[in-house]
Amino acid sequence: MTYQELFASILHQKSYLCVGLDTDLRKIPAHLQSEADPVFAFNRAIIDATAEYCVAYKPNIAFYEAQGPKGWESLRKTLDYIPKTHFTIADAKRGDIGNTSGLYARTFFDPSSAGLEFDSVTVAPYMGSDSVQPFLEFEGKWVILLALTSNPGGADFQRLSVNGKPLYEQVLTTSQQWAGADRMMYVVGATQADAFADIRRLAPDHFLLVPGVGAQGGSLEAVSRHGMNSHCGLLVNSARGIIYASSGPDFAQKARLEARAIQQEMEKYLDQFLPH
Ligand SMILES: O=C(O)c1cc(=O)[nH]c(=O)n1[C@@H]1O[C@H](COP(=O)(O)O)[C@@H](O)[C@H]1O
Prior knowledge:
Layout: H1 3-13, E1 17-21, H2 38-50, E2 56-59, H3 61-65, H4 69-81, E3 87-94, H5 98-109, H6 111-114, E4 120-123, H7 129-136, E5 142-148, H8 154-158, E6 161-162, E7 165-166, H9 167-175, E8 184-188, H10 196-202, E9 208-211, H11 220-227, E10 234-238, H12 240-243, H13 251-273
Parallel strand pairs: 1-2, 1-10, 2-3, 3-4, 4-5, 5-8, 8-9, 9-10
Antiparallel strand pairs: 6-7
Helix pairs in contact: 2-4, 2-13, 5-7, 11-13
The protein binds orotidine-5'-monophosphate.
Keywords: Decarboxylase, Lyase, Pyrimidine biosynthesis
GO biological process, one term: 'de novo' UMP biosynthetic process
GO molecular function: orotidine-5'-phosphate decarboxylase activity
């Protein structure tokens, strides 16, 4: 999916919501546990309930890897089930020496490898340009680079001063030499509202993947006010706040209501903050 297609999808859906499919087998409602593939049955119901309110889905790979081969199969079926109109993110946070990154890239981008073809993958910038380059070799696919993460420990390194500036700023400026806003996005936590103006100064056109609303307490209003650019430039993720809105038989219905409430708020912010 291209930059323009993603923006068109946001305008069409009146939403920049990304639903996080962080599906923990231990949290799946009891009535689904007897299904042949409870994780897929759960995801299918969540996708059916939320697709009209979001533009993207982000399965966090850890939740699938933890189930071994069964988990990879649930992930493959889930990815196949996501409507082709929606942007897909493999939240794998990969990155290694180039030779190894090449295999990570194949895993998530080349369907003849592991049977998966995502639009994008999250990548850690720490090992530098040659660790990111192999992901960019896949035409039309996106790298979503960790810039300023939502967790408290994000400050341990990302806010350290390097040459008088926080390290995450260096990540934003250096990585723009590797790819433009049409191939790269940045992760910025919703809990880091104070940094959004700064980040927009350094990366005015890029999409930002913003996790941390919902369960982690970030403010959608603040993110939208300070982070929106002329192409929206935001994908705001919520996982637990949507998919575990209820642990009972009504889980999908409650997920739908949560997603709809976020979409309605986003529609308001698109009117308010998107330059017309
Ligand atoms: O890359 C991410 O998606 C990510 C980066 C970050 O800084 N913080 C963060 O929470 N995430 C992911 O976003 C999701 C947040 O989930 P909830 O807190 O349940 O909405 C999880 O899959 C996290 O791994």
